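Researcher: I'd like a candidate sequence for this fold, 784 residues long. If you have to choose between options at a position, lean toward the conservative one.
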């Protein structure tokens, strides 16, 4: 297997992208980075992304457009200008990605039924703010609306930011976080449909950016089933989180008791930490405010780099909140070669972020190329169609060693698309999510259901040679082995990619961990907020005059969504080459991918800053108070015409000529926010959103998790379903992919009823082991 093959796993796949927004363009960018040949078609005057903030200083080049365009080809064969040329392009490609509003699809020849009839083998991916069906299919949605429609916006900030500014509006995450989730979801859906194409033919893939946002924030919805309504005021870590230092901020998260004890040792065993009442994890969870006063006072005497280095040496999960410049020049980042020099028209050579994963020892190549060997022609029509109830990944088997949240979430997404997931545990060390998490404020174990639903459960003690042999027997019947341990653990256990490839040559190993499998930080421990801290996303998010923003479960699940999508790239690579691959995904690099345009700005010499809810090109743009306690509505005015409409609704001072232009409004942002807020606070958030949408302005109420669950739009699209777990009806979030043919998806049951509850199937049916053989392994504590 050559490095060229590994650097372009989607070589031979051809994609046409017609994107006006970041979500669809990010999907195309991801596929181009993986080696697909992506052709972006633009209307007359060019894509609106060419005019999107931020711009590289001293130029007319959009940093966002430059980042999203890397590795793509461009064409003027737009359906609005030259329909025959556009259709000729579609005749020769595998996947179409577009974000044409629903009301305009038919006029451009992009109505799903028409595309399927004309191009029967084409995978047609539509990426819209609220999807292509349902009551809100025609609604507009900018980034700030989508984060509030997903429920995450209402839950931010927490921790130190909330302590400092409890009365301020809720916050968005920097940049295009939710729209980039939509892009990852689009790749997931597109590659799932491509995998199913030999039996199903081409099909329509309906992606809702809102649903992608909801799924990465599903932990809050999961907690509704536990009887807990998450709010930003009650969401903060009971102790730890964002900690001030002499020269910046670090993130501290001691989930396990041994990590806390190591941190106490790092602090020099202070007297206050020796109190008997603080030795019990549950007791500490009830005294978080007191503990944080001590922690913040001590960390304020430390420097970031020194504290992180010493802490990680003690096994304490600590990460510095890195600036974009520190990410760009970081030792870990450069050891993993995550940046490539790209020539940008009108700018010159600049370093551009490549990808947060690799398929071998070397990074991916930035940009598609033809396959190194001819790709077999795909039939223009399938021999037979898969049943409508079928799932696209039916027949794929995953041996799942992942733990906690990020890794299990990735296999959870694949399971919802039909893959069989066999989760490996042992009673000697249960998955972390089965145990209490006092630092989160959970004094009993989590339900565990949100990342193990529909999975099968077996027990293997991999620290015994017989356990390793058992793993290899199952791996011989699997397609993917997924794991999320720290780098080197699978090697030490004797079940590394190299070892498993000896028994199954085409096995795919999907490794996801904090820092990746290589580099000086590969051994570092980390959880969700640490990923965002290391990757630069946390530093750029937050109030302008406040600390970095602590980004929690959505960061974990963003990693998992990426893992699921790149696993599908690996499956398609194996189908083409007959070879397996070791996919190495670094969670901190997922965070860096989400600030790609800011990293490009930094390499250009600019200094991107935290902006709170503000936007460089839109005003008003923010979360505004609405009638009721802690009620908010998100509003994004894109241009002067929309402002004139909103000003007419507000009346009074909104008619000020100084506010008529975007430049005038940006210069008067604080006054503008006060003016808009004075109007919105007298009205219901839902009523404001409907009124503004009816008038062509992007708006959405800031939803709590229970509002998301009750939404008729989400219910109609089966994005939220009710399942019965332990006799209790609870809401569950479906994988954010709707396919027109292989349409089966979503959770059918909760977590496995018991640890090892599926061993009759796995050991009996799958491996053909006798009852006596299994009993002997149980007696030897191999199956335990």
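Model: Candidate sequence:
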């Amino acid at each position: 297997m050559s490095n060229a093959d590994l650097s372009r796993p989607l070589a031979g796949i051809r994609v046409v992208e017609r994107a006006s927004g970041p979500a669809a363009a990010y999907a195309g960018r991801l596929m181009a980075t993986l080696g697909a040949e992506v052709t972006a078609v633009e209307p007359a005057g060019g894509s609106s992304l060419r005019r999107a903030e931020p711009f590289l200083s001293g130029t007319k080049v959009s940093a966002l457009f430059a980042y999203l365009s890397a590795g793509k080809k461009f064409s003027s064969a737009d359906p609005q200008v030259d329909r025959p040329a556009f259709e000729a392009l579609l005749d020769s490609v595998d996947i179409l990605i577009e974000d044409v509003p629903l009301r305009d699809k038919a006029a451009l020849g992009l109505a799903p039924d028409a595309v399927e009839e004309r191009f029967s083998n084409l995978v047609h991916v539509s990426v819209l703010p609220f999807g292509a069906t349902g009551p809100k299919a025609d609604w507009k949605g900018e980034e700030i609306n989508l984060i509030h429609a997903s429920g995450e916006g209402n839950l931010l900030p927490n921790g130190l930011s909330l302590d400092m500014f409890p009365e301020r509006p809720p916050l968005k995450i920097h940049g295009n976080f939710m729209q980039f989730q939509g892009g990852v979801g689009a790749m997931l859906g597109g590659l799932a449909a491509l995998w199913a194409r030999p039996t199903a033919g081409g099909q329509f893939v309906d992606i809702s950016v809102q649903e992608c946002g909801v799924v990465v924030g599903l932990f809050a919805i999961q907690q509704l089933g536990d009887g807990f309504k998450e709010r930003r005021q009650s969401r903060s870590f009971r102790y730890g989180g964002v900690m001030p230092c002499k020269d910046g901020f670090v993130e501290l998260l001691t989930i396990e008791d041994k990590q806390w004890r190591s941190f106490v040792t790092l602090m020099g065993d202070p007297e206050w930490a020796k109190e008997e009442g603080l030795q019990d994890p549950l007791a500490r969870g009830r005294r978080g405010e007191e503990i944080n006063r001590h922690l913040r006072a001590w960390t304020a005497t430390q420097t970031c780099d020194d504290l992180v280095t010493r802490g990680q040496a003690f096994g304490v999960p600590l990460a510095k909140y890195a600036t974009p410049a520190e990410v760009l020049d970081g030792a870990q980042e450069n050891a993993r070669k995550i940046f490539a020099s790209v020539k940008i028209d009108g700018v010159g050579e600049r370093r551009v972020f490549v990808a947060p994963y690799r398929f071998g020892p070397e990074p991916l190549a930035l940009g598609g190329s033809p396959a190194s060997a001819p790709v077999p022609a795909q039939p223009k029509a399938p021999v037979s169609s898969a049943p409508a109830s079928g799932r696209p990944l039916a027949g794929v088997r995953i041996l799942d060693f992942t733990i906690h949240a990020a890794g299990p979430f990735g296999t959870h997404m694949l399971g919802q698309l039909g893959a069989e997931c066999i989760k490996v545990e042992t009673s000697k060390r249960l998955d972390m999510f089965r145990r209490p998490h006092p630092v989160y404020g959970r004094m009993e174990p989590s339900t565990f259901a949100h990342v193990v639903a529909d999975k099968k459960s077996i027990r293997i003690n991999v620290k015994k040679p017989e356990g390793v042999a058992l793993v290899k027997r199952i791996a011989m019947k699997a397609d993917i082995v997924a794991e999320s341990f720290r780098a080197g653990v699978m090697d030490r256990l004797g079940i590394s990619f190299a070892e498993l490839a000896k028994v199954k040559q085409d096995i795919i190993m999907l490794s996801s961990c904090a820092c990746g499998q290589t580099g000086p930080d590969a051994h570092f421990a980390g959880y969700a907020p640490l990923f965002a801290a290391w990757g630069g996303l946390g530093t750029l998010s937050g109030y302008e005059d406040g600390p970095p923003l602590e980004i929690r479960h959505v960061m974990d699940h963003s990693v998992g969504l990426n893992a699921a999508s790149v696993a599908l790239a690996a499956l398609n690579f194996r189908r083409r080459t007959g070879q397996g691959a070791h996919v190495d995904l670094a969670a901190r690099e997922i965070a860096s991918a989400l600030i790609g345009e800011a990293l490009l700005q930094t390499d250009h010499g600019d200094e991107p800053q935290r902006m709170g809810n503000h936007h460089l090109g839109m005003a008003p743009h923010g979360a505004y108070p609405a009638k009721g306690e802690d009620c908010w509505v998100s509003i994004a005015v894109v241009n002067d015409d929309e402002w004139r409409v909103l000003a007419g609704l507000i009346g009074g001072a909104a008619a000020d000529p100084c506010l008529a232009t975007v430049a005038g409004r940006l210069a008067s942002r604080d006054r503008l926010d006060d003016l808009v807020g004075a109007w919105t606070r007298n009205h219901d958030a839902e009523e404001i959103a409907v009124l503004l949408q009816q008038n062509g302005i992007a708006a959405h109420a800031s939803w709590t998790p229970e509002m998301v669950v009750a939404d008729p739009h989400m219910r109609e699209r089966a994005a939220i379903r009710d399942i019965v777990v332990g006799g209790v009806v609870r809401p569950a979030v479906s994988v954010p992919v709707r396919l027109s043919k292989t349409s089966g998806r979503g959770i059918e049951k909760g977590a496995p009823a018991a640890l090892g509850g599926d061993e009759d199937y796995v050991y009996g049916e799958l491996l053909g082991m006798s009852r006596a053989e299994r009993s002997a392994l149980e007696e030897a504590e191999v199956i335990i």
